[in-house]
Amino acid sequence: EFFKKSENNLNPDLVDKDEHGTGGPLTVQRFASQPPFAEDILKAAASLGYKGTDLSGANPSGLNYVQGMVDQGIRASTARMYLTKKLHQTNLRVKLNAQVEKIVFNGTRATGIVYRDLITNETVTVKVNKEVILSGGVIGSPHLLLLSGVGPKEQLAALNINVVKDLKVGSNLLHHVSVKAEFTMNDNFLQNLNIDELVHYLTNQSGQLASNSMVQLTGFFNSTLSPLNDLQLYFDGFETWCSRTGYLSECQDGKLLNGTSDHDEFIAKLNSMKTNKNAAIIDDIVKKYEAIKGAPITGPLPCGRRRIG
């Protein structure tokens, strides 16, 4: 419900109304510009039964355009739509050029954090009266917990980190592997991406550069081994000279291996192709991609390594 309250969806007729909201601070809409040949790819997918639904809905399936957090041709990030509008508040302070290195605990209660100023290299401790909210992402959050003593005690002891709580932090990492599939198309769409188009965008925040081109085209499918949509196909890169296919959760029991506070030395062991089932599912999505690529409505798109042009 919170996500629905935060959303201001400007294309309610294109999505499942029960899954989206209007009137919130985050503007969500379809990109204003789509490459002409994207429609051909959608028709090819539809001819094979892959007609797209709301890809942010409860049961996304088929190939379709995604919506984006875009406001007046500019990315509507949470920082832009939330933080920049609240910087005048006296109870908010945003610290830039800082890296949190540790959560401070009193017993098992978080009482503050330690961060390093990346400009002065000074180490600063910040105490809290109520709570510490950890929001470092799928990699950063467990990494920081491990550095702070929350994790497998054997792993922490080997690194001389005091154990606050023995938990399986850093295990069960789920990550999806992608398979790169390149093709060429006879289309001159990208030849229009010139200095005039750039000036037009900088002046009006509209046109082709107000879009993310083919990246907005993606789809969800189920493999022959699952009744659920466990496969995703998406197009990668503004110049769109490759697409990617991937299995959404084939990385079983991945692990985060804690190193030092230096993020460059942080290690993730993904176990990407741990079972034969994973390889079979990857093979399945590649076959679906090949079927869409060769559908009669678009004509075969020969594989190659040249950019579209």
UniProtKB/TrEMBL annotation:
A Pfam family that the UniProt record links to this protein: GMC_oxred_N
Region (Disordered): 1-23
Descriptive protein name: Glucose dehydrogenase [FAD, quinone]
GO molecular function: flavin adenine dinucleotide binding; oxidoreductase activity, acting on CH-OH group of donors
Ranges where the Glucose-methanol-choline oxidoreductase N-terminal domain occurs: 7-177
Family as reported in the entry's similarity comment: Belongs to the GMC oxidoreductase family.
Superkingdom as given in the UniProt entry: Eukaryota
